[in-house]
Write a structure and sequence with these properties.
Elements lengths: L1 E2 L7 E2 L2 E4 L7 H4 L5 H12 L5 E3 L8 H12 L8 E6 L10 H15 L4 E7 L10 H13 L3 E8 L2 H10 L4 E5 L10 H10 L2 E5 L6 H4 L6 E2 L2 E2 L2 H17 L3 H10 L4 E7 L3 H12 L4 H7 L19
Parallel strand pairs: 3-4, 3-12, 4-5, 5-6, 6-7, 7-8, 8-9, 9-12
Antiparallel strand pairs: 1-2, 10-11
Helix pairs in contact: 2-3, 2-11, 4-5, 9-12, 10-11
Length: 316
């Protein structure tokens, strides 16, 4: 168990399960997820050796949280030791993200999840707010929620690294989530991770599979960061696959452990959409990978640019 931040007693496993796919977001992930499949996946997470899940108010227009709440109810309540992370979100129609909207987002989450307190609560995607100036009110509200006992730890979850760095310099977050920006093929978040580590902010590194291609492979899943990928984008993935084949290790295990091996990272968030993926993730986390494989992987080229710069954002 790893302490999440320096001003909180919340503890988390080094693996977290991302549940955006459970909201059934085919425009993002390329496939749909039924309610029953989502319920079974949540139960598999919460009864696993890493009962830690991350969701958001806006994943699947609220369906992710709703399905998690229904699964918890079906299980008879949240199992002891389980950890829930969710996020304060802007109004998805008006993009309003002030203190009042933050408060409403919290109320919605508590209601649909059926719990009285969020273990880890993040301000989510401020770069998409209608006015960055009003986000300061949402941040004030976030920290007040912790003071009021509605959150055990509070943090920042977003994409744009430049804005994340600015906010991290000016606010003492317990945690942060960056996604797709610290993987085998991208290191854009490297410097902001250094900053967070110096400040004692616990780092949750999300999407180590770059949207799925580093788990399924370039032939089976020729997409990169939620978009169709050309051969130029897939070239380093194919190079990684060749190394994995040489050393007889799953590409998913290598992608996951690349994140887990970094001493700055408190927990790695892996998206799952099927119950069997939970066990597979934990197996990959413990799969033995030869040092020679890591040495070969160190020579694979990677980008330090924004991997989502050309992404057409669609939360569905």
């Amino acid at each position: 168990m790893t302490l999440a931040g320096q001003t909180t007693n919340v503890q988390v496993p080094n693996i977290c399960f991302g549940t955006a796919p459970l909201g059934s977001m085919p425009n993002t992930y390329g496939y749909a997820v039924s309610e029953e499949q989502a319920y079974q996946t949540v139960e598999a997470i919460l009864t696993s050796d890493a009962p830690f899940l991350d969701t958001s108010r806006n994943y699947g227009d609220g369906r992710s949280e709703e399905r998690i709440g229904a699964a918890i109810k079906r299980m008879g309540g949240l199992p002891e030791g389980a950890v829930i992370s969710t996020k304060l979100d802007r109004d998805m129609e008006t993009r309003r993200f002030d203190a009042d909207r933050a408060r409403r987002s919290l109320e919605e989450s508590l209601s649909v999840l059926g719990i009285a307190k969020i273990d880890v609560l993040h301000l989510h995607d401020p770069e998409y707010a209608r006015d960055l100036d009003e986000v300061s009110g949402a941040l004030d509200a976030l920290f007040k929620m912790k003071e009021e006992g509605f959150a055990g730890a509070v943090g920042l979850a977003m994409g744009r690294i430049d804005l994340m760095s600015d906010l991290l310099n000016n606010w003492d977050f317990d945690t942060l989530i960056s996604h797709n920006r610290f993987t085998l093929v991208n290191r854009e978040a490297d410097q902001v991770f250094d900053l967070a580590h110096r400040k004692g902010t616990a780092i949750f590194n999300a999407a180590p599979y770059a949207g799925g291609v580093l788990a399924k492979g370039a032939n089976e899943f020729p997409r990169y960061v939620y978009q169709e990928a050309d051969e130029a984008a897939l070239a380093p993935v194919r190079q990684i696959e060749t190394i994995c084949a040489e050393y007889n290790v799953p590409i998913g295990a290598v992608a996951l452990q690349f994140s887990m091996r970094d001493p700055r990272i408190a927990s790695t968030i892996c998206g799952v959409s099927k119950p069997e993926r939970v066990a597979q993730t934990l197996d990959w986390a413990n799969h033995e990978i030869p040092q020679a494989a890591w040495q070969a992987l160190a020579a694979v080229p990677y980008s330090s640019e924004d991997p989502e710069a050309s992404r057409i954002y669609d939360p569905g």
